[in-house]
Specification:
The longest helix has 54 residues, at 388-441. Helix 13 packs antiparallel against helix 14. Strands 2-1-7-6-5 form a five-stranded antiparallel beta sheet. It has a five-stranded antiparallel beta sheet with strand order 9-8-12-11-10. Strands 14-13-17-16-15 form a five-stranded antiparallel beta sheet, with helices on both faces. The chain has 653 residues and is an alpha+beta fold. The chain has five domains: 4-124, PAS domain (Beta-Lactamase, 2-Layer Sandwich), CATH 3.30.450; 161-258, Beta-Lactamase (2-Layer Sandwich); 263-386, PAS domain (Beta-Lactamase), CATH 3.30.450; 406-470, Orthogonal Bundle (Helix Hairpins); 480-651, 2-Layer Sandwich (Heat Shock Protein 90), CATH 3.30.565. The protein is built from 17 helices and 24 strands. 39% of the residues lie in helices and 25% in strands. The radius of gyration is 58 Å and the shape is rod-shaped. The structure holds adenosine-5'-diphosphate. Residues 532, 536-537, 540, 564, 566-569, 577, 582-584, 587, 594-600, 623 line the site of adenosine-5'-diphosphate.
Length: 653
């Protein structure tokens, strides 16, 4: 037969809510089956244990009282309403409960009863084996929500999620969290559960919590400082409201992501983007990117300058829309890259070819496919380099090379001409000397003409050697001048007379000026100039031709002209005539001897006297060489004076 005690126990065990009874010493005397389940303790293990074991250590004393006494003292104020408190399960997990306290008896017989009601499921461990849960889940899909298997699976998902998850009520106190949250932020679960979010004193976080309590989602980015774990974690939290069965907001869920890695990756990405942007903008080459529709996405300033359009005007446009024909050409190349996936490298084009206005330049363009890491084609990168300078340098190098080749050819020609020229008078000279020697040996009469001819050849050799010496002195800047007041009219007359013997069948005429002409000059060197001009006039004119030498004064300048009816000089070669070793193409070394030095030396002498020398000529119609020199007392003698205005400006030296 059941005793009253057994009957009461059975009654209490049948109750849904957990019940705990203690004595005046705060030791547990009784707990029902619901309480066993809640705390996960066996009844016999808890009976006679201090009731404080059922609560977290930090809550065991309140306001200088034991927790039990404190709760009893609050009973009056609460007027039978429950109090919310965290209690402690056997496995250390804290569980939020509503606790109602009641008392019976006095003194040593006093009994204190707690009725508890669990508020939220604490998401923590999985009690069921995983395999079984899976089977359950198959039989009872998760959407049913109410199934045991579904719940366990749900727990599994939450517990193993790589994200920290917590639930809070409207207080807002954290009522539950998964183990990952502890791992992420370095605080043990027992500290987190029961934590009042207000106590974190983070206004932005509180704003998010308030938003959820008003039924709105919110996002938080910040750092969580764990006092217990001494850890600061950059976190991103997504907040979302939770509703009870009546559709009322009963709290919220926070999903916490440790963004340390993401922040680091973002920082790295930002840094490399900044680096790329700097490179993009400061690179000394034109850079651009076009999408697969051949529209500009970005161009740097250099490319914008080359295209002669502000960089911002490129975006969204095709090259053909902005650059006309050259744009169409570029599009053909881009199309090729898009079709084949192959780059086009260093295609050189002139700005004229591309119809770019302005002075002609040269561009080298490369186009290459730009792909996403997976290989998908994103567009085409364009790299344009202004190679005008390089092209010019190449052209200059080619020119210098040609000139060097020409100089080598001239030198080789000169050597063969010079040896030929020097040898030519030597043979007759040695013949004549041998004849003289023979005659002297035989005591025969010596013909003065033989001596005269020998002398002429010797003179020819001397002149050639002198020219060579003068040319090298000029090159070295060491041709000395000894200027003095000189009667140019007489000097010219003297030269013309001395040449009379050489003129052969030519007619050599001199028309002197009506007045004396005085210049400040080196007479020896001036004679050399006049001599050379008359000598050339005779040499390059047919026998019987008339050479006219004239001297006059025009505007403070003495103007000497030597006119011949000779072979003339090709137009395009007249400007080269006064260069060292230059001989016009219409004179062959066989028919007209010479080293190409006379005019070179003459120009140097004339110019160093402040004068100018030039020629007027036409092939087959003779030539006239002019020399202008400042007269003494007229224009001052200046080594760099400009030629007189009346002079023709072509072929002036
Ligand atoms: P060279 O007469 O010894 O060749 P120059 O320096 O005196 O050297 O003359 C250079 C070149 O100018 C000549 O080789 C010749 O081609 C041309 N030239 C000079 N004077 C005359 C002229 N009066 N008529 C035609 N060609 C001339």
């Amino acid at each position: 037969m059941a005793t009253a005690h057994d009957e009461l126990s059975a009654w209490l065990d049948a109750a849904v809510d957990p019940l705990v009874a203690c004595d005046a010493d705060e030791h547990i005397r009784f707990l029902n089956v619901a309480a066993e389940r809640l705390f996960d303790w066996k009844r016999e293990d808890l009976v006679n244990q201090p009731v404080s074991r059922l609560f977290p250590e930090r809550l065991r004393h309140f306001a200088g009282k034991s927790l039990m006494r404190y709760l009893l003292s609050r009973r009056e104020t609460l007027g039978g309403r429950p109090i919310r408190i965290l209690c402690l399960r056997r496995d250390g997990v804290e569980v939020l409960v509503e606790l109602t306290v009641g008392t019976l008896g006095q003194g040593a017989d006093e009994r204190v009863m707690f009725s508890l009601r669990r508020l939220h499921e604490v998401i923590d461990t999985v009690r069921e084996p995983v395999e079984r849960t899976r089977q359950d889940a198959q039989v009872q899909p998760m959407e049913t929500g109410c199934s045991r298997g579904g719940e366990d699976l749900y727990r599994l998902v939450v517990e193993n999620a790589p994200l920290g998850i917590f639930h809070y009520d409207t207080t807002p106190i954290i009522t539950a969290c998964n183990a990952q949250l502890s791992v992420l932020i370095g605080s043990p679960k027992r500290v987190l559960v029961g934590l009042n979010l207000m106590s974190l004193r983070d206004e932005r976080l509180m704003h998010c919590v308030r938003e959820t309590l008003h039924g709105r989602d919110a996002e938080y980015d910040g750092r969580y400082h764990s006092v217990t774990g001494h850890k600061t974690t950059p976190v991103h939290i997504r907040f979302t409201p939770c509703y009870d069965d009546a559709g009322q907001v009963e709290g919220g869920i926070g999903i916490v992501e440790d963004v340390t890695e993401r922040r680091r990756a973002e920082k790295e990405r930002d840094e490399s983007l900044a680096l790329l942007a700097t490179l993009f903008h400061t690179a000394p080459v034109g850079l651009g990117f076009l999408d697969t529709d051949m529209r500009y996405v970005r161009v740097n300033d250099v490319l914008a300058r080359i295209n002669q359009l502000p960089s911002e005007q490129h975006r969204g446009h095709r090259p053909s829309e902005l650059l006309g024909n050259s744009g169409r050409l570029v599009e053909q190349l881009i199309q090729h890259v898009l079709d084949t996936g192959e780059p086009v490298e260093s295609r050189e084009m002139s700005t004229r070819e591309l119809e770019i206005p302005g002075p002609e330049g040269f561009l080298a363009g490369s186009l290459y496919p730009v792909r996403a890491p997976g290989g998908r084609m994103l567009g085409v990168g364009v790299l344009v380099e202004d190679i005008t300078q390089r092209k010019r340098a190449e052209a200059e190098r080619d020119r210098l090379y040609r000139e060097a080749q020409e100089a080598i050819r001239v030198r080789d020609d000169f050597l063969s001409i010079a040896s030929h020229e020097l040898k030519t008078p030597l043979t007759p000279l040695s013949l004549r000397l041998a004849a003289l020697e023979r005659k002297l040996e035989h005591g025969e009469h010596v013909d003065p003409a033989t001596l005269h001819h020998a002398r002429q050849h010797l003179q020819r050799i001397t002149t050639l050697i002198n020219d060579l010496l003068d040319a090298s002195r000029i090159e070295a800047g060491r041709l000395a001048l000894h200027p003095e007041a000189t009667r140019l009219d007489r000097l010219v007359e003297g030269v013309v007379q001395s040449m009379d013997a050489q003129r052969g069948d030519h007619v050599l005429r001199y028309a002197p000026p009506s007045h004396s002409v005085q210049v400040f000059a080196d007479p020896y060197r001036l004679e050399q100039v006049v001599n050379n001009l008359v000598d050339n006039a005779l040499k390059y004119s047919p026998d019987g031709g008339t050479i006219d030498v004239t001297l006059e004064v025009q505007g403070g300048m003495a103007l000497l002209s030597v006119k011949d009816p000779g072979i003339g000089i090709p137009e395009e070669q007249q400007r080269l005539l006064f260069d060292r070793y230059f001989r016009a193409h219409n004179v062959s070394s066989r028919s007209y001897g010479g080293l190409g030095l006379g005019l070179y030396i003459s120009r140097d002498i004339v110019e160093r006297h402040g004068g100018r020398i030039w020629v007027e000529s036409a092939v087959g119609h003779g030539s006239t060489f002019h020399v202008a020199l400042p007269v003494l007392g007229g224009a001052p003698l200046h080594p760099h004076a400009h030629p007189p205005a009346s002079q023709p400006d072509r072929h002036v030296h």
